[in-house]
Amino acid sequence: MLRFVLRRLASGAGLVLVITTIAYALLYAGGGDIARRILGQNASQEQVAQKAANLGLDRPLWEQYTDWLGQAVTGEFGRSWFNGQLVTTSVTGRLAVTLSLVLGATLVAAAIAVVLGVLAAVRRGWIDRFVQFVSVLGFAVPGFLLALGLVLLFAINLGLFRATGYTPITTSFTGWLASVTLPIAALSISAIAAVAQQVRGSVIDALHRDYVRTLRSRGLGFRRVVFKHVLRNAGGPALAVLAVQFIGLLGGAVIVEQVFAIPGLGQLAVQATTSGDIPIVMGLVLATAVVVVVVNLVIDVLQAALNPKVRLS
Amino acid sequence: MKRHAILGTALAAALALAACGSDTSSPSSSSGGDDGGGSSGGTLTLGAIGAPATFDPAGSEWGNYAPFYQAVYDTLLLMTPEGEIEPFLATDWSYNDDNTVLTLTLRDDVEFTDGSMLTADVVKENLERFKNGDSPDAGYLAGVDEAVAVDETTVEIRLAAPDPALLNYLTRDPGLVASGEVLDNEDLATDPVGSGPYVLDTGATVTGNSYVYTQNPDYWNPDLQHYDAVTIKVFEDPTAALNAVKAGEANGVKLSTNDNLEEVGAAGWTVHADELNFHGLLLLDRGGTMNEALGDLRVRQALNYAFDREGLLQAIEQGHGTVTTQVFPESSEAFDPALDDRYTYDPQKARDLLAEAGYADNLTLSMPTSAVLGSTTFTLLEQQLADVGVTVEYTDPGNNYIADMLAPKFPLAFMALEQNPDWQLIQFMVGPNAVFNPFKYEDPEVNELMERIQFGDEDEQAAAAGELNAYLVEQAWFAPFYRAQGSFATDPATAVELVPTNAYPTIYDFRPAS
Question: I need a surface site. Which of A79, B49, B83, B400 has the fewest CB within 10 A?
């Protein structure tokens, strides 16, 4: 187990290195005149050239990248070119916000999807058709559109939740709940759709297995069979889908955070990428790559815990 | 069914919990306090369309970023809603005979929030830092030779040549003064120390998203503190701004588009409108160095006759604005209402002029295009130019739209430019060294008029600016389409007056509505 985790961590580190290299090259390719964007339209060409030289933008790409990498491995990520904030401060602060949204959405999606999926698989009939319908709808409706609808109904007309902004959980729990409920709802719908379908399929599959018949014939209650045995077997594929959804939600958060003016990674990513704030963008790429690697690892470990048949080798 | 009941209960509980939270943290509920024009009006929550890059005055910007700075810093002079320049940190100012030395007398009772005092040395240092700093407006002080602290409360600003815009500059970013103790501090970018009416609460502020200010208890001018606290939220997405308006989560919001004015009005908010930018073609290559045709006055005038300005205004801005053919703003003494329709839509006349100049149906213009500025605009321009026989070749420089325009890589380009007070506007888009005169085009007549503005007295300045305006229109240096409406919305609990020279109202001009 330990060896497996270590090996996965090592390959994760390699992956992160590859991702940052590619990201840096892409930024360079699409970069444009960053110094001009920092200084604005009133600055003269001379000022712009001077700024570019100060930032080292006139040096070759590989030199800029190795410079960044050399400092990054020592934990030195520099400061934003635009607002002078430390990269570590602005990325970690915002990572916490986005993770609270994405983790929240994942947990909500997992809980609701398991209930819906199991109900559909066990009851079949109209519940099944309803779940299928909701799933298709969940896939079809984009998160941001749903977000707009939710804001209109629950924040503007009913005044139950906040339409914009974010309150940290450390400041006020109810304030936090008021600010994250709608974004989490908007984010989780498509994940619910995907995971519910997967749970439904796996449970139906598992219910037809011999061991279920054997367990039932030995007199075990249906509920016990479903929750203790069937779900355990059906959980693996569902977890895999959930992991993929989690990573997708990180992307979905970009749009949803814009609509709700939430200070998460998404908002920062849009700002930094459109302006060409390379230190921040690289910090973001690194942070999200690490999160994805860790999540995948955690899911693998969970799989093993859930089902001993999955060998960690 | 039991399961449905459980789900329903859980949902109801979540709603109830969250509802409590939203009540206690709603900004509008805390701002409706009774106020008799004194200094306590609860919290003022504002919405801005962008966040400032830094709190270091030497890197500061104005326009939509002004309130972030005005909350913590004072400026040397103050711009009133009437467009008058009034004393602020400086109580008095005067020029020498040839307008090359500006002497400022400072207040002697101004304390920064770190306890240090405002002195002439501090002002001198701030001015010099701004001149040599990263601000996009650093060029405003390019003509300043030096700032000299004559005594504790007297500063002289010595100029190489008269600068009629200097006093105006001192009401905005170049006039911001930070504490002398923190000027070398790297944290100044995120932790400002000024003498302003409010203090930035760095713990509660999320850079780029929301900025929280508390009242400065020792402020020297408490009459300007109309609120106990100020929060400025950044709504980069117009939908987020609109939602904040509808949900009452702010008191004043700058709108980045005019698309939703009806909805804003329907929410009970007041829309304050002004016109501070013109949209149109910059006919940059007036000398015809890159495209010979543009050196011909008839071609430049033909381009002015080719556009259906009213149609463009309707299509692009839903009619929110005023068509014009001049670049000087309505607030300027040089403004002439007759110049708003010097060139009426007349495709036939445009064709005739082009034919006369030898470009009947054979003129091709290379222009930059940008998805960011709205593809509708570029399509319409292409169509209207095609109607008079002019072909447009578009190139999309991506993020380098402005950089390539100023390189210069195009003989002309579509752009929206701010319409500043006269001399500032001239330095920005007319003078031989103006940023938006990238071909450095010069015309002896323009130079002469500029000289009269620079060296003349006030009456002379106004007269010459008027002549310059008329000349630029006649010579078709630009092909302006319209002045676009800028919109600022306030809720019923808040009153504000706009300033004629800035996109965002001055922070002291917000008051609780009586």
Answer: B83
Mean pLDDT across the stretch B16-43? 44
Dist CA B121 CA B102 (whole Å):
16
For residue A32, list chain B residues with Cβ-Cβ distance below 8 A.
397-400, 403
Q: Find the CB nearest A259 among B7, B51, B237.
A: B237
Asked if the bond preceding B432 is cis, omega within 30° of 0, the reply is no
* Cβ under 8 Å to B: A residues 118-157: 119, 148, 151, 155-156
Considering only B5-9, B242-246, B465-469, which range has the smallest mean pLDDT? B5-9
Q: Which of residues 407-446 of B touch A (CB under 8 A)?
A: 407, 428, 435-436
Token digits for A186?
Answer: 């908007």
Q: What residue of B is the nearest CA neighbor of A119?
A: B3
Query: Do the Cβ atoms of B21 and A148 come within 8 Å?
Result: no
Residue with tokens 């995120």: B190
Cα–Cα distances in angstroms (integers) from residue B299 to residues A243, B269, B379, B420, in the given order:
63, 46, 21, 28
Instruction: Render the burial of B54-66: b for 16+ CB within 10 Å, e for the rest.
Output: bbbbbbbbbbbbb
What is the reported pTM?
Answer: 0.81
Q: Is A37 on the interface with B (CB under 8 A)?
A: yes
Residue among A31, A115, A151 whose CB faces B243 most closely: A151
- In order of A19, A32, A33, the CA distances from A29 in angstroms are 15, 8, 11
Q: Give the Cα separation of B422 and B335 in Å (integer).
A: 10
Is A87-312 a CATH 3.40.50.720 domain?
no
Confidence (pLDDT) at B97:
92
pLDDT in tens, A180-228: 999 998 888 888 888 888 888 888 888 888 888 888 888 888 888 888 8
Asked if the C-beta of A98 comes within 8 angstroms of chain B's C-beta atoms, the answer is no
In chain A, the largest separation of any two C-alpha atoms, in whole Å, equals 86
Query: Any idea where the domains of chain A sit in the sequence?
Result: 34-76, 87-312
Residue of B nearest to A173 (CA): B21
Axis crossing angle, helix B444-455 with helix B458-474, rounded to the nearest 10: 160
B101 interfacial to chain A (CB closer than 8 Å)? no
Interface check A166 vs B, CB under 8 A: yes
Give residue A27's pLDDT.
80
> For position A268, what pLDDT does the model report?
85
Please state, as a whole number, how many other Cβ atoms lie within 10 Å of the Cβ of residue B349: 17
pLDDT on residue A311: 58
**Which alpha helices (H) appear in B100-235, and where do they start and end?**
120-132, 166-169
Burial of B456-481, coded b for 16+ CB within 10 Å and e otherwise, reads beeeebbbbbbbbbbebbebbbbbbb
pLDDT value of position B135:
86
- Top residue of A41, A184, A223 to mutate, by most chain B CBs within 10 Å, is A41
Query: What is the SS3 assignment for A198-238?
Result: HHHHHHHHHHCCHHHHHHHHCCCCHHHHHHHHHHHHHHHHH
If one counts every other C-beta atom within 10 angstroms of the C-beta of residue A100, the result is: 19
Digit-coded pLDDT (tens) for B455-474: 998 899 999 999 999 999 99
ipTM of the complex: 0.71
- What pLDDT is recorded for position B27? 44
CA angle B242-B244-B250, nearest 5°?
125
Of A159, A164, A276, the CB nearest to B244: A164
Q: What is the mean pLDDT of residues B414-441?
A: 93
- pLDDT tens readout for residues B107-135: 999 999 999 999 999 999 999 999 998 88
pLDDT at B345 over 90: yes
What is the spatial distance between Cα A225 and Cα B140, in angstroms, rounded to a whole number?
Answer: 78
B296 contacts chain A (CB < 8 A): no
Does the beta-carbon distance from A271 to B208 stay under 8 Å?
Answer: yes
A51–chain B Cβ distance below 8 A for any pair:
yes
